[in-house]
Amino acid sequence: MTWIVLGVIVFAAIIMVVLYNRLVALRQTRNNAFSDIDVQLKQRYDLVPQLVETVKGYAKHEKDVFENVTNARAQVGAARGGSQEGRMKAEGLLGGALAGLLAVAENYPQLKADQNFQRLMDELSDIENKIAAARRFFNSATAELNTAVEQFPAVLIAGPFGFQKEPFFELDDLEKAAVHKAPEVKF
Description:
Elements: H1 2-58, H2 63-79, H3 84-106, H4 109-113, H5 115-150, H6 154-158, H7 173-180
Helix pairs in contact: 1-2, 1-3, 1-5, 2-3, 3-7
């Protein structure tokens, strides 16, 4: 009888360790996914001043757009090292400001023909695609962690060990508006 009780206790302990280690691995995967997003966002952050200066040369009277991009970039810089939610919000503002900058660029045909502008646009497009892929991976990792935290029997150890549901990387209102607005084409 003692061996049976001892066997059940050992079995329960092994299950707890396995579940705990799985939750830790999922949390680390999510953190790694956020770091991947951060790398891409840093590249975009570094590219923005070059893009702004290139467009500025052609569109000198679009002061508000440049100020919005500059302010949004400053907020991203200030959010570095802060909470993931704060950083996500700041990056959303920058994404919306960049959409405004790109809309201004559409109004200047000679700018679109400029090789430097085209190179910057290609780089920005590539970075935006990588950011989108990294966000999808992050949200997938978040969903997997959230599911594991809520599933039985992991739910029994998740709460006591500090595991909780985590937020997804979602578009803010400015980004949603930019995504759902049809691009303006003029000939």
